[in-house]
Structure formats: structure tokens, C-alpha cells
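Hello again, I could really use a second opinion on something today. I've been puzzling over a protein and I'd love to understand its fold better. I'm sending you its amino acid sequence along with the C-alpha cells. It would help a lot if you went through both lines with me. I've dropped the whole record in just underneath, so have a look.
***
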Amino acid sequence: MENSTLSFYFNLTMFMNIGHHRYPAFVFCLLLYVFIVSANLVIILVISRERTLHEPMYMFIAFLSFNSLYGSTGFFPRFLMDLLSDTHLISRSACFTQIYVIYTYASYEVTILGIMAYDRYVAVCHPLHYHRKMSRKTVYTLAFFAWVFPACNLTVSTIVIVRLPLCGNNIHKVYCASWNIVKISCFTTSVNNVIAMLGAISMAFLPFSFILYTYLRIVIACWMNSSEIKGKVLHSCFPHIISFVTYSITSFIDTALGRQNLKEINPFVAVILSLEFVVIPPVLNPLVYGLKLPEIRRHIFRMLCGKTPN
């Protein structure tokens, strides 16, 4: 404790490995950010403007797009500036703010996917009672808990991390992450592991378990039905399954990467893997829902082109 240092800045050391590739990387990431903002805004505008889309499933899709905007805005502006900068120091307040935004984005993503899974479960397993069980009040209640619970949980977790005494200020990543802060704290490894495990259980394990349980019930409900009904159910659930699988893979990679010694990994591979978590879901979700669901696709073409596709 006596040797701990309270630094006012953290150093994002992974940027040092990018070198002269920073300029094409900046252009590519800027275009990527513009696409994420534009695509998700189109989804939100279409769903908010069209009264026929004011159904629970589409409202949850709009929540997912809004969360993509939130997470991307919390990451890309700072990341783009760092790409062009020769120094990569970030203040403590900016670092912990970035941690809070990115991790609430991640938590919101899984809780929204959780209520979307519940919506599909009710639609498939209790179709006659769907409108009663998924009333407007129920939708607002689910949305409230999907936003508030992660925010409260991450507020407590961030406060705990802020209070940790630190024995260094180098973060081997391109953005601030809680586990990287924990690794440079002066607490023992066992205490750090307990803190990380409790956070992972509350933020990921419970929502993931719920989603898997709902889809198990959906599979059981469809098992004895005709192939036509199975096809309709698959068509209805397919976009959500893609979003869930994508989020699961990218979040797992990010978690596993945080436990590795990144200095032993190819720097370009390490940078790309560390970006998947905050880039792929916001890019993929509007494409999946905008192109796969005919109702949204029809209204998007009508809004952008003034006509409906065949």
C-alpha cells in the first residue's frame, strides 16, 4: 500500500504498436463509425415513425440500435483522436467514464437481448396470450429494468474500481477496461479475482442463462410441430439468434483477451481482437434486422428511396 502511486493519467500502450498504419486505420474506423451511426439511426427513425412497427419486438430492436449508438459514441471519438495522436495519455476521470459507458453498453446489450428472448418465447409458446402478456405496461417495465439494473450495478462496480490503490498506470489496450485497472492495483490477485468473478456473474451469467433457458423452451415447444411451423419460428427468431451468438463470441474473446499477456500476441491481431467487442455488434445488428425482417426492410426502402422493393 505504501508503495502505491496515484497517477492522474493512464497510458494506453497498445497504440504504440500501430505505427505508420494509423492513417489508413483512422480513415477506415471513421467510415465504420459513420456507418454505425447512420444505420442505427435509420432503424430507430423507421420504427419510431411507422405506427405499424409499434410492437414489442420492433421496440426492442430500436432499444438495441439506441444502445449501439450509445456504446459507439462512448468509444469511437476518443479512439479516433488517439489514432492520430503521438501521446496516448487519458485522464483518470475520462478513463473511468469510458469504462462506465463501454461496460453499461455491454450490459444493456445482454439485458435487451434477454427481454427480446422473452418476447419470442411468449410469441411462440403462448401465442393466444401474447398481447396480454406483452402489453405496453409490460414492455415499459422490462425496458426499465433492462436499463436501470445494469446502470446501478456498474455504478457500484466503477466506484469500487475507482477506489483501488494503483501500483502503475500502463493499460495494454486501446481503451480503458476494468480488468486492466484491476491488474495494476496493489490488491492481491485473489481479491481481484473475487471482484471480477462477482461482476461477471451479475452482469453476464444470469442474463445468458435466461436467454438459453427461453430458447430451450422454444425448441421444446416446436419439437412436435410441423416443418412449416418450425420454419416460421426460425424465421422469427433468426435475427435475434445471430445477435446473441455474435455478442456471445465477441464478449468471450474480449474477456479471454483481458486475461492474456498481450505482449506475447501479434500486436495487429491483439488490436483487432480487442475492437471486436465494441465494433461488430453495432455494425451487424442494423444489417440483420434491417435486411432480414421484411416489415423493417420495406419501410427503410420507402423512406430512403421513396418506394417499396418487390
Q: What stands out?
A: Residues 1-6 have pLDDT under 50 and may be disordered. The beta strands are 9-12, 89-91, 170-171.
